[in-house]
Write a structure and sequence with these properties.
With 278 residues, the protein is α/β, with parallel strands linked by helices. Helix content is 29%, strand content 22%. The longest helix is centred in the middle third of the chain and has 17 residues.
Length: 278
């Protein structure tokens, strides 16, 4: 695989949340001709790394692309175990803080607060799904009157069917209490939030994903499900699958009315995705 970081640095980088462990930054890509006070669609990407490590740079290439298509794109930091010494619940707390920050600053960044798409990969995809279905945990500094629910989801092999982490310092009963808040598969219900999911057929998260998607579809939710034959976990990060998944995500957002016109992403040969229908 050839890694594909964004060619351009973010247009803006600022602190959106201060925690005991660190200041968390928001990386922002703006479309050409951007101005405050508009009503553009937006997309936010949370990076993967098993809640242990990772960086927002994982999604800079996709953020840059969707900014080029007319969206305001956000790549937030969140706390992770290796760098900040925190448990999984703080990752979910920070994701909720990040979505609320974006929605509260919608006018400042020229976006429609009702057209914010949540995206992410692996653990970050899990965070994005939980913004729709989860109920917490929330930071004490958050304005909980601001919804975390996105208008749609663009998800790259999220760990949406997982449950307890393998290692935790929490007692089992405390972890179960937290999972009751943020576990996507434990909290699926009918929501008007369509999602597109990408997995490789060799992804170890695929069996859990199938359970999650079937359960979500059973509740009446739209879940578009695309598979890459023979590909492992995190395949979407590199060429040619970066291009293939990004174009499909673009087509999905065009269908929903968030974008207009033909996608500009060119997909190299040999990167065919197969759609799994209900």
């Amino acid at each position: 695989f050839k890694k594909l970081p964004g060619k351009l640095p973010p247009d803006k980088v600022l602190v959106y949340k201060t925690t005991p462990q660190a200041e968390l930054k928001m990386n922002i890509y703006l479309p050409e001709g951007w101005k405050a006070g508009g009503s553009l669609p937006a997309i936010a990407f949370w990076f993967g790394g098993g809640y242990v490590n990772g960086s927002p740079t994982q999604f800079f290439a996709k953020a840059e692309y969707f900014a080029g298509r007319g969206m305001v794109a956000f790549c937030p930091e969140y706390r992770v175990k290796e760098l900040h010494g925190v448990e999984k619940d703080k990752c979910f707390e920070d994701a909720r803080s990040g979505m609320r920050w974006i929605r509260k600053h919608a006018a400042e960044y020229g976006i429609d607060p009702d057209r914010i798409v949540a995206g992410g990969g692996s653990a970050g995809g899990d965070l994005a799904v939980s913004l729709t279905y989860g109920t917490g945990p929330d930071a004490e500094t958050d304005d909980v009157s601001v919804s975390t629910v996105p208008a749609a989801m663009v998800l790259f092999n999220p760990a949406a069917g997982s449950s307890l982490p393998k290692q935790t310092t929490y007692r089992p009963e405390e972890m179960q209490r937290l999972l009751a808040m943020f576990s996507p598969i434990a909290n699926v219900k009918k929501m008007n939030v369509p999602g597109i999911f990408f997995y490789g057929t060799e992804d170890h998260f695929l069996p859990g994903a199938v359970k999650f998607i079937n359960k979500s579809r059973g509740c009446g939710n739209r879940c578009d499900f695309w598979l890459a034959e023979g590909m492992p976990h995190a395949f979407f990060n590199a060429s040619p699958w970066h291009q293939a998944t990004t174009r499909k995500a673009d087509e999905f957002l065009v269908e929903l009315g968030f974008l207009k016109g033909e996608p500009t992403m060119v997909v190299p040969a040999g990167a065919e995705l197969k759609k799994e229908v209900p």
